[in-house]
Amino acid sequence: MRPVTLYGRIKTGVFLSIITIFTCSTAVGQEYKYEIGGMAGMSMYMGDVNKNNLFLDWNPAFGAVFRANLNLRWAIKANLLTGSVSGDTRNTDNVFPDHAQLAFKRRFYELGAQAEFNFLPYSDKYAYLQTSRISPYAFAGLGYTLATGDETFSGMNVPVGIGVKYKMKHRLNLGLEYSFRKLFADDFDAPSKKGFNLDDSYNIPGSRLKNKDWYSLLMITVTWDFGLNGRKCTNL
Fold it and tell me: Taking the model in full, what pTM does it have?
């Protein structure tokens, strides 16, 4: 058997250290496993009477949020929220059949879940992993939307968004996020079927992606950490 040289020991030690740091940075969680809190902001509609303006006819929105932190990079978030959407054909350059005019407003409720990815290892602990108290993040997931009106709207949505989170102090997190909710129907802006409405207003059939409505959310979140994480990285 060949003797282990000093160089070989150093090389092996460096290799094991790199593997340990990588394993810890992906496996170790935040000090607390969960977050719970509230969110408040604004909701906006995009559809037949608003194609491009992201903040046209905004309405207040608020809700509750729960987050399970899987590690420093990944989290699963659930939300329950409510808001309103509104629109007015007079605020668009679109010309509708017979020059019809319509204004609408309706309240919606949403239950959803998203996977979040932090672009920086988010924590106020574990300095040896070069963690950061502030991190931008992106998320996507699946949700369910219910909206009131003479004609109730009900359907799935696909949320996609970006945000930034900041650990203000131990166990207290502040976040700001903007997201789109893609719907798979064209009657989100049609709370009533009486007379002219915005459900297939041009009588042009649409696919599952074309001629469908959206809504967006700009929300501030405040959450509180709880549930101590028992996982530790003790190899360093």
Answer: 0.78
